Amino acid sequence: MNKILIVDDEPNICNGCKLILIEEGYDVDTAMNGSEALEKLFEQNYDLVLLDIRLPDISGIDILKQINEKRLDCFVIIMTGHGTVENAVDAMKNGAFDYITKPFDDKEIIKATAKALENRTLARENKMLKKQLYDRFSFDNIVGENHQIKEIFDKIQRVAALDSTVLLDGESGTGKELFANAIHAHSKRAGNRFLAMDCNTFSPALMENELFGHVKGAFTGADKTRPGIFEIASEGTLFLDEIANMDMNIQSKLLRVLENGEFKAIGSGKVQKTRARIIVATNMDLKKRVAEKKFRQDLFYRLNVFPIYIPPLRARKDDIPKLAYHFLKRFSRETGKQISGFSDDALEMMVNFEWPGNVRQLKNVVERLVIMSDTHQLSRGFLSDHLEIKRKGGVPDIQTPKTLDELKAAKKKFLTVYFGKIEAAFLSQAISRADGNITLAAKNAGMQRSNFSAMMKKHGIVADKSSD
Ligand SMILES: Nc1ncnc2c1ncn2[C@@H]1O[C@H](COP(=O)(O)OP(=O)(O)OP(=O)(O)O)[C@@H](O)[C@H]1O
Question: Where is the Response regulatory domain (predicted)?
Answer without folding.
Answer: 3-117
